[in-house]
Write a structure and sequence with these properties.
Blueprint: E1 19-22, H1 29-43, H2 51-66, E2 70-77, E3 80-90, E4 98-106, H3 115-129, E5 135-137, H4 144-152
Parallel strand pairs: 4-5
Antiparallel strand pairs: 1-2, 2-3, 3-4
Bound molecules: coenzyme A.
Coenzyme A binds at residues 38-39, 42-43, 104-106, 111-117, 139, 143, 145-146, 148-149, 152.
Length: 166
């Protein structure tokens, strides 16, 4: 495999920078589950992550790790899992195969350094290798950091999802 998921980044001898690698199941399970509190509670205000939600999420990840249509990568820093991305390929009415980002996370202490770009770059590499014509994702309007992150990676707004409150 080429690209960000394939190699460590050389920091010129002052330490090894975080690197992207494929998820190892079940070794990475607890770290990835611990990320989901912030992912879901921040993006869906009012939602509370419960143990049963996490159990179901763990099942989905386990299945995804075996699926040829999905990939899971983690960001590892000195042996610690500090980030995560879950991606898949899917067809649409218009495009036979596009990439879709299902979930991305970087630990708070590593944010603001471009680490999510490593994960998104690994996604680009895999999507291209699968013949995707484009990549897409959904993000909540309240998640300004994520929107900036995706824009930095080249994503543009293509649709609005509108809601009306009663
Ligand atoms: C969204 C999220 C993944 C972004 O992670 P990140 O590592 O900070 O994002 P990036 O890699 O794009 O880094 C961006 C920041 O690093 C800075 N930066 C420093 N060096 C950089 C570099 N070499 N390349 C890119 N950005 C760099 C940028 O200026 C930017 O700062 P800003 O946000 O203040 O504008 C992270 O905030 C997160 O995990 N949030 C919680 C989970 C979540 O909501 N996920 C999204 C679900 S839709």
């Amino acid at each position: 495999m080429q690209g960000a998921a394939a190699q460590d980044t050389d920091t010129g001898g002052i330490g090894v920078a975080p690197r992207v690698r494929e998820l190892r199941w079940p070794a990475d399970r607890e770290a990835v589950l611990s990320f989901q509190y912030e992912v879901y509670e921040h993006n869906f205000p009012g939602f509370r992550v419960t143990q049963s939600f996490l159990q179901e999420y763990a099942q989905q990840i386990r299945q995804a790790a075996r699926s040829p249509y999905e990939r899971l990568y983690v960001l590892e820093d000195e042996g610690r899992v500090v980030g995560f991305i879950w991606i898949e390929v899917r067809g649409t009415m218009i495009d036979p195969v596009i990439g879709y980002i299902k979930n991305v996370y970087v630990a708070p202490e590593l944010r603001g350094q471009g680490q999510a770009q490593l994960l998104l770059s690994a996604a680009d590499d895999w999507f291209r290798s699968q013949g995707c014509s484009k990549a897409s994702l959904d993000v909540s309007v309240c998640n300004e950091a994520a929107i900036r992150c995706y824009q930095r990676a080249g994503y543009e707004t293509a649709r609005y999802r509108m809601e009306k409150r009663y």
